[in-house]
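notes to self, project folder thing:

trying the whole complex as one job this time. last attempt i did each chain seperately and stitching them together was a nightmare. two parts in total, labels are on each line so i dont mix them up again. if this works i'll redo the older ones the same way
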Amino acid sequence: MFSLFSMFSRQKQYCESLKQLPQQLVRDLPMTPEIERALEIVGKHDPRLPRRLMLRAEQDIKLQFYYGGHYIAVTRTPEGLSVLAETLEHASELLPTLTEAERRFVTVMRPAEWAVDSETGEEIYEA
Amino acid sequence: MKRKIPLSRWYRASISTPRPELSIEVLTSIGFQKVRFVLDKGSDFTTIPRSVADRLRIPFERATRQMTVRGIGGRAQASMAPIVIRLFGVERSIPCVFAEIPVESRSEREPPSLLGRAGFLTDLCDVFLSDRHFILTHRASLPNWLYRIVSRMVPVFRETDPDDPI
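result (full assembly):
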């Protein structure tokens, strides 16, 4: 039930028990020349972007580069987003094994496809 | 109630294209699950690919209301059925289109899930898009005249991560 209190209350942000699952921190994914170039473009587009949003941009672009076009399951950690399942099939198998409390900390998302198809080399954009 | 959510920074065709994305809790057969949607003000209905709905165990009747979805990329068969979402702590039902991706355009990559206008922008929220953030205002089931007064009196908003359920 909606309450005024819920408007201002802060919920817990991380789940300790999810730390035991195998996962990949997005921050630790290797930086590639393509990602660096994309970040340069973001910096040129908005030169006064605060550092916090620039770090988020790096995370978003890494997600797009490594997992673009795939549904993945992620959880938030103090070090940033962490990928628990790299495909929809894996996410589909993982989610029922988690408790309801753990599932509250897991988001299913689909990063946009990377701008250039690695196999055909053609430029892609999502209308 | 207002939420200020940073735009996700996407990079397409050598251009930075910030995108409004938000996580909404959707009812599945194993309970509520946070799913991140792309907010699409140009889309009539919320759209989820059928394969994704199946994998995430989002219950829907395949036989109900068959329709054709037409987008810039072509046509697809779909069925429309309500889904239950939890928004600002309140459970709501909104219409949703479950689209079958045509075999010829199927690849190992899935299309995105879109949050369209029907049921969401028409009944539940207003959205203001700026260059770095978008602001989501919940109407909290108030009549429109009362909602306008309250939203002026309560101008504060809470910073929200795209992963936080709204």
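what i see at first glance: Chain A touches chain B through 49 residues (CB under 8 Å).
need to look closer tmrw
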